[in-house]
Amino acid sequence: MADKTIRFGILGCGAIARFHADAIAMLDNAELIGVAGSSLESAQRFALGYQVKAYADYNEMLADQNVDAVCICTPSGFHAENTMQALHAKKHVVLEKPMTFTKAEAKAIAAEAEKSGCVLTVICQLRFSEDVRRVKKLLADRALGELVFCDLYMKYWRDHAYYASSNWKGTRRFDGGGALMNQGIHGIDLLLYLVGNAKVVHAKNCTRLHDIEVEDASMAMLQFENGAMGVIEASTCVWPGFERRLEINGTRGSVILVENQIQKLIIDGETLVERQQRAGNGTASNPTAFACDLHALQISNFIDAICGRDELLITAAEGGRAVALIEEIYQFGLQGR
Ligand SMILES: NC(=O)c1ccc[n+]([C@@H]2O[C@H](COP(=O)([O-])OP(=O)(O)OC[C@H]3O[C@@H](n4cnc5c(N)ncnc54)[C@H](O)[C@@H]3O)[C@@H](O)[C@H]2O)c1
């Protein structure tokens, strides 16, 4: 098993599917076998670019004994059903974020993965970035002292065309939420991964600008289990859009992560990192302005877990953490403008 090549199928032939195909191509022990989409034509168009098979539908892909693992890249509202189908077919699963929309569904998926004996990971690619790993280590070593404030700002811009050009973005059924469940889940995953579990003290969710069924501006006040307090501000209607900013302040030091990069790190009076703001605003206004290298690192860990070489870093339980917190924030309701 140690040197086995894992053969992948991709479901969903849209924007993120290309990141999966390109990430698989970067790995020596991974091979893309074929793709399935909402129609044979869409699969054929995608397959042509990668010289792989186009399946008529998902069932055909799942029936193919050559496929060891599937990457689920469909609109979020299909994630739970598509994952269950793959696990029943005994395929390992790389599931795009959000894992699903509720804590209960996430638990059901985790239980099914356990029962099937298959490996399932939920894409949380930011956890694989070098600076995030550095901050994780600093916090594990308690280098910032007692944590006081842990704040996450995701003030993004998405224009009307972003929602109007998609048949699922901004819908409750298929997007499951807005600035939090779609754009903000990466930041929330990082916050919980780095700082630990939190409860929502208070929250407010609004639809300020867009003609969508879900929130485009949200604010939550958090109490972390370790005693720290924090806020989350998330939006898709802030012009011109700002990069994700995570500020962690403790009694001995502070760190500011902008996107995946440490912008400032001060411990015991010593400035260890001080970087200028980067040019441009990345995914704050352009959802696909990132590279596939972190997806490749996560898929590589997934393959190592299948082959028994390494522990799976992002399990189903880990993938469900951000979903559970977002569900808690949504329980405060959705208000108008
Ligand atoms: N990890 C990340 O950074 C990241 C970034 C973008 C999107 N995503 C996630 O990836 C998923 C897809 O997003 P996207 O931007 O690629 O969307 P998209 O609209 O570009 O692509 C979705 C694709 O799925 C196909 N599809 C729709 N219903 C289907 C079905 N029932 N069966 C098979 N195919 C179907 C569509 O035809 C389309 O090709 C979403 O869940 C999104 O949250 C993750």
Describe the structure in your own words.
This protein is an alpha/beta fold and 337 residues long. It folds into two domains: 6-125 and 292-315, Rossmann fold (3-Layer(aba) Sandwich); 127-285 and 321-335, Dihydrodipicolinate Reductase, domain 2 (2-Layer Sandwich). The protein is built from eleven helices and 15 strands. It has helices spanning 15-26, 40-50, 58-63, 79-88, 103-116, 130-140, 160-164, 172-175, 179-195, 293-306, 316-330, and strands spanning 6-11, 30-36, 53-54, 69-72, 92-95, 120-122, 147-155, 198-206, 217-224, 229-235, 245-250, 253-258, 261-267, 270-274, 334-335. It has a nine-stranded mixed sheet. A hairpin with a 2-residue loop joins β11 (245-250) and β12 (253-258). α5 (103-116) packs antiparallel against α11 and α6 (130-140) packs across α9. The longest helix has 17 residues, at 179-195. Nicotinamide-adenine-dinucleotide (NAD) binds at residues 11-17, 37-38, 42, 73-76, 78, 96-97, 123, 125, 166, 182, 287. Nicotinamide-adenine-dinucleotide is lined by residues 11-17, 37-38, 42, 73-76, 78, 96-97, 123, 125, 166, 182, 287.
